[in-house]
Please model this.
Amino acid sequence: MKTAIFSLATALCISAATAAPSAPVRMPAGYSLETIEIPATITLGVGGLAFTPKGDLMICTREGEVWRYREGNWSRFAQGLHEALGLYIDPKTSEVWVMQRPELTKLVDEDGDGKADLYQTVNADWGLTDNYHEYAFGPVRDDKGNFYGTLNLTLSWRGWARSDRWDIGRVHDSKMGRDARYRGWCFQVTPEGKFVPFASGLRSPAGITINKRGEIFYTDNQGDWNCTSTLHHVVQGRFYGHPSSLADHPDFAGKNLDRITEEEYDHLRYRPAIYLPHQELASSPGEPIFDETGGKFGPFEDQVFIGDQTKSNEMRAWLEKVGGEYQGVVFDFVDPLQCGVVRNRFAPDGSLWVGQTGRGWRSIGPKTFGLQRIRWDGKTIPMEMHSVSLTKTGFHIHFTKPVDRQAAGNTANYAIKHWGYIYQAEYGSPKVGLTELSPSAVKVSSDGSEVDLELPLVKEQVYQFNLNNIAGADGAPMTNPIGYYTLNRLRE
Amino acid sequence: MPGVTPAHAADEQAVKIGTLHAQMKYDVESFQVKPGTTVHLTLNNTDEMQHNLLILVPGESKPLEIAQKAWALGADAVRKGFVPDGPDVLFHTRVLDPQQSDTITFVAPEKEGDYPFVCTLPGHAFSMKGMMRVSKSATTLAVKATSATETAQTKFHVHVMDEPMVIRAFVDGGPARSISVGLPGGINYLFDAGECYVRFGWFGMFLDVGPNVGTSDGDRGGGWCRILGEKFELGDSGFPISIGDRDAKQVVRFAGYRLRGKDVPQFFFTIDGRRVTQTIRPAATGVGLQSEFEFETDPGKIFFYVSPHRLQLSSSVGTWHDGRLEVPAGEARKFTVTIVRQPKDETKPKTPAVAP
Model:
């Protein structure tokens, strides 16, 4: 099993080294890409992005610095941080918080010279060893002033952890373990600075976000106990699948986690809102971000944009609640960018800033680090599936603008597949029960912008829709004609 | 071109020595002169840090020995140009800022032998040294140092210039929550942000952060930084302060640090909720540190523990009993503790002193 994993990693490195695209292959109409020039003296392995109320972009880096950027001008705000992987800036007071590997820190510029001089520890109550994989991500903050972050599990592959502490807390021979407390948890830090273990079962949760409704989502990376990369809606007290974290769960105190079966864990876990099919769409997702720009970024308000480090692409997801829980559809959006995408942030003008790093894992985009910006021109509506929602009898597809009604009315033009994944301790999962079908019926709305498909529905499956044969009424093809809907629950 | 060229007369020689950029080395490893020759030695500092050059009496261990004496000059070091008193230093340049040069003229010793030369700025002597060979059969050849370009080995070396530096990263021999501090002058230390005290110090260059930030595209980083100097002990015996009792059960929490310009960093932590500020400076009396502890509110009686082996301990208040300092109630709100490495020639530990 290990051999297989290492050869996969090697294959990824090779493909990353040989592919050197200069521009994205996929870029919806109306969108453009700007590459920010970074001074040669700065190594900007982006760990976090945030805008100040005045519109300056702050960037924290894997190298431990915080930079302020505005229109080609760079100045260093802080340095010497331990692998800074996230920033939060108060939209009213401009106060800055940074997530470092060992702690959540407030950075204060006491003398007003533009550089932080007080590095104030807000909370450091999670465990940390010298295992390189114990990353800390976040913070996001809710409207009550609570911060949230996510903590990686401990890498437990002999020789790869660079630490003697690699073989602790593995469950069913998992490739990740738990060396120190609260690894694999989402945590909350209250306004008083108190650490609250919030949700468990995380693996390598490299991105966390909160939307205007106060709902928190995080992404996780494919691996042991995670069949493919995922987007999860976090609710306090829930368990999301990787059992190593349960060593710190009071309900499991004193229990031997190896004696709980995969089937039992499967009943305990909450499913992801969206599966991101491995290699097809993602392989190491980073930060998700909700488009709450009020339409400044195009016709995708309230949708989620998700970057991927290895694939170097930007994805777009649409969520709906079915049976009280989120599920939804995900598409590719811009692919590939110049370097692995780990951070996303909307600027006040509605453009999407993309923070990038490739070092260590390599990425399809060949640069080692970078910063790019995706803009919408404010008028061009791209030809895309806006959303795919579940009905009682099939799916309802809403396009961004009318499609060719004749093509859309032909059931043969909907290539649909669905499959399941195995929840298991082993690394990843093949697609199981792969089924291909066409809808039994299709109904196109009179304006050609919506279709209803009838087809048999099976829960706990991913449905792939390939609409490659359907173009816009104006002849424009879809840039991203493939969508993946995670059907956890059927409509009652 | 570094090297030795014949001067006007047969009994005069000119020697030119440069410094290698960011490598803590001279560009000449050795040169030869004949006994009694008048030598015009020029040190041309093309590095971005200060350097000097001292020519010493023969002896393999002399460079480090003399350098350590220079570092122990403490507050006097700058005034004395990092040149310690005594007969071991034969000739020396002044301290050169970047891009400065200095020529000294001296008569080479009559006695044949290998006379080391060394830079005595803090930490430099580990690598910044060479040999003046005095020999009747001296040729005019000088041996150039091997590498004249910045190498991969030094690319991730962090140098402290005129302001203190703080770097949080894993450090070889340190805990997971390590904070490395480099002070101008070559004194460095590691503050444990988990346990809230200074674990150890080192003098010399600061830190190689390559293992932390990753040295190649395929390197994930997160490895242990290497300290670039000689480690010195500071009596690590765990968190040093105990309030009220000799062995109080306390909850100690790290609260951060202040790093502003040229000021030395200050660390903050709480003991059972009582806020303490620790301000750490190089010791004025030798290789070591002086820490000032200031409680926000009077803690009453406190105990302070140091493992005293081969250390000189002193404090502004209280009484030492081997490695245990007792500070009576009412005196502990603000006090200093100085921990200095014992000079090597002293075999017996000195009785800890209390400053007047």
The first helix of chain B runs from residue 62 to 71. The CA atoms of residues 55 and 117 of chain B lie 4 Å apart.
